[in-house]
Amino acid sequence: MSAAVEEISANQYDERVLGAETPVVLDFFSTECPPCEALAPKYEAVAEQFAGKVRFLKIFRQGNRELATRLGVSGSPTLLFFKSGREVGARMTGEDIKRSALKSAVEALLP
Amino acid sequence: MSERYDVAIIGAGPAGLTAGIYAARARLRTIVLDESVPGGQVKTTHKVSNYPGFPEDVHGSELSAAFARQAERFGARIRRSVEITAHDLSAFVKTLELDESETVEARAVIVATGAKPRPLGVPGEDTFKGRGISYCATCDGAYFEGKDIHVIGGGNSAVEEALFLTQFARSVTIVHQFEQFQAEPASVGEALTNPKIRVLFGHEPRAFHGETALEALEVEALRTRERKRLQTDGVFVFVGMVPRTDLLARYVELAPGGYVETTDAMETRIPGVYAAGDIRVKRFRQITTAVADGTIAALAAQKYLR
Ligand SMILES: Cc1cc2nc3c(=O)[nH]c(=O)nc-3n(C[C@H](O)[C@H](O)[C@H](O)COP(=O)(O)OP(=O)(O)OC[C@H]3O[C@@H](n4cnc5c(N)ncnc54)[C@H](O)[C@@H]3O)c2cc1C
Question: Does the distance separating the beta carbons of B61 and A45 come in below 8 Å?
């Protein structure tokens, strides 16, 4: 696992996501989910590119069901984008999350 | 940096991986590129019952992994999660740029980019994608443990995936536009006798509603034109596929529906460029027909390269 992407659990959500000083990308993933496997290397590559500017986190859906339900997340992978404690932009979900599209979405988080 | 191959195969579904097996066994330097992990549509199909050689059902993910291992065993290189960011297929030596950073060169290219789920195209679909609407039962089924969900469609995929979803959901209502299913009788029989499955024939979805997540599916009865809102925890859409021909569209004229026309040797109009699998104009799109296309494309490419 690359150091650029850190795994959190629901009890860290308030502090690590909502309370973060930098923009945050949060990836809800599951096991036995080929689209999640496909996203992982792209997510890490983009995370490395933006290291220090944007935080890339991931959260295991099966272990954090309540948070997923509360956020209305019903599929894996789902990427949520946060800035100053608020969700911004469109979520990205499902099989065809392109690396270039993710990069553009992350760039949009920066000033 | 640029790497040279004899054959570059775009798409690691059944067609592309089979082409990879044949090309690699022919001792061609072979690379298979996929923006996802290998397997194509098969990797997320929960079980396959009609692929010969498996008298018991085989999980789609296992079959996919086996295809990939077999291609790799003979020396095909498989690159996962790569995006083709630029390409030139019309030249004698074809070039593909990967993730804006590497270049692959090959004299023959086999395009096997398959198909992806067809969206319904009704209001609310984009909003609730990933918030209650899904196109992949194996990926997202577990989110609907104990829930009441709907499946849209009435072909093989819809009926098979509805059966799979009964493992998780409390009830699965299949909404289908016609008065009967278009699926194989074997799975239709299973669905109609499954206590968790209900069926709403003669109805079409018209809209999705909800606050932050999906709450209701609006359907129209086709005979009476009457509309009603059905409470739902989730909707799985299986209403067919659309070919992924964006890459080829620049080089060839696409047939109606976006499919690619080929000769029976899988040749497109561009010398050295082949198309195989679900992206082709053909009558039946199955794993068996995709692997047949992949075989033919690789053998034809081998001849072309000689
Ligand atoms: C739910 C479901 C159940 C099914 N069940 C069965 C069954 O039981 N039996 C059966 O015979 N058939 C079944 N099918 C049909 C079967 O899966 C397809 O006919 C078959 O997978 C087609 O193979 P393919 O290689 O042509 O394309 P695909 O399987 O679609 O593979 C195409 C690959 O290309 C990749 N790709 C696409 N565009 C690009 C790009 N630009 N760059 C890089 N890579 C790209 C994709 O990521 C994908 O991996 C089912 C289909 C579905 C959806």
Answer: no
Tell me the per-residue pLDDT of B213-254, one tens digit each, with 9 for 90 and over: 999 999 999 999 999 999 999 999 999 999 999 999 999 999
Does residue B65 line the site of ligand 1, with CB under 6 A? no
- Kindly give the distance from the C-alpha atom of residue B117 to the centroid of ligand 1, in angstroms, as a whole number: 10
Residues B36, A98: C-beta atoms closer than 8 Å = no
pLDDT tens per residue, range B46-91: 899 999 999 999 999 999 999 999 999 999 999 999 999 999 999 9
Contacts of B189 (CB under 8 A, 6+ apart): none
Local structure of residue B294 (DSSP, 8 states): H
- The predicted model scores a pTM of 0.94
**Whole-number mean pLDDT of chain B?**
96
Question: Residue A100: its chain B contacts at CB < 8 A?
Answer: 83, 85, 100
Residue-level pLDDT at A2: 54
Is residue B15 within 8 A of residue B112, CB to CB? The reply is yes
What is the rounded CA–CA span in Å between residue B284 and residue A21?
54
Q: What ipTM was assigned to the predicted interfaces of this complex?
A: 0.90
Tell me how far the alpha carbon of residue B41 lies from the centroid of ligand 1, in angstroms.
Answer: 3
Q: What are phi and psi of B207, to 5 degrees?
A: -165, 160
| DSSP state string for B136-147 | -HHHHGGGGTT-
